[in-house]
UniProtKB/TrEMBL annotation:
The chain crosses the membrane at residues 21-41, 47-66, 73-91, 136-157, 163-182. The keyword Transport applies. One of its GO terms (biological process) is L-valine transmembrane transport. It is found in: Cell membrane. InterPro entries: Brnchd-chn_aa_trnsp_permease. This is AzlC family protein. It comes from the Bacteria. PANTHER family: INNER MEMBRANE PROTEIN YGAZ. Belongs to the AzlC family. The keyword Mitochondrion does not apply. Pfam families: AzlC. One of its GO terms (cellular component) is plasma membrane. Keywords: Cell membrane, Membrane, Transmembrane, Transmembrane helix, Transport.
């Protein structure tokens, strides 16, 4: 029996660990396809959204604002604000993937969705000494069951439209997705403090324009988590 190469092993490990997200990507994509067509977008426009933007939360934000007849500038700014978390994701993965060739970094940036980031970040923290090629292979594996399904599910939702019964309650996919990503990360006091602060501040800033409150809450959460980490370091040094 031929031994599996490190790159192949990393790729298939990413694939296997990304498979559970099919349970939420499928209804999430279907829901966007339905929402886009109900907002008056053509099949081409709906698919253009999912292929060019490939970011569910900002896509839903944009479609909602378009339905509310918001200005083009407001739609773009709100979608960008929601997607600013990708800048945080990039900063987190840069120490691991920053040395990759430009074309590889471009693909990493394009396919960086919440689920893939969560898997890659956890894997790189667990085994930081993997080679760059192994890390890229894992990333590609994590993308394989997630990103293509997003396109397919969006297409199915746009085609089926209102034929999908409301009783299916597809909107459950959004909170379940983020719970599945965040829960495994709550392993330490700084993580728990950051999560608690983000919840409180997101509620406090909920009156702000779309996306703005989430970004401010994220910044507050990061600051709180960092301060908690520094406090723990000082406490250990003093003992």
């Amino acid at each position: 029996m031929t031994a599996q190469s490190p790159l192949s092993f990393a790729y298939w490990r990413g694939c296997r660990q990304g498979l559970p997200f099919i349970l939420v990507i499928l209804p999430f994509g279907l829901l966007f396809g339905v929402a886009g067509t109900e907002a008056g977008l053509s099949l081409t426009e709906v698919m253009g959204f999912s292929i060019l933007v490939i970011a569910g939360a900002s896509q839903f934000t944009a479609v909602q604002l378009m339905t509310d007849h918001a200005s083009t500038v407001m739609v773009i700014l709100a979608a960008l604000a929601v997607n600013l978390r990708m800048a945080m994701y990039s900063a987190s993965l840069a120490p691991h993937l920053g040395a990759a060739p430009g074309w590889a970094r471009g693909l990493v940036a394009y396919f960086m969705v919440d689920q893939v980031f969560a898997l890659a970040n956890a894997d790189y923290e667990r085994a930081p000494n993997q080679s760059l090629s192994e890390k890229l292979a894992y990333y590609a594996g994590a993308c394989t069951p997630v990103c293509p399904l997003w396109y397919v599910a969006t297409l199915a939702g746009a085609w089926l439209g209102k034929a999908i019964p409301p009783a299916f309650a597809l909107d459950f996919a959004v909170p379940v997705t983020f719970l599945a990503m965040i829960a495994p990360m709550l392993r330490s006091l700084p993580h728990l403090v950051a999560a608690a602060v983000s919840i409180v501040m997101a509620l406090a800033f909920s009156v702000l324009p779309a996306g703005t409150g989430l970004i401010l809450a994220a910044l507050c959460a990061m600051a709180a988590g960092a301060q908690t980490e520094l406090w723990l370091i000082r406490r250990r040094a003093a003992q």
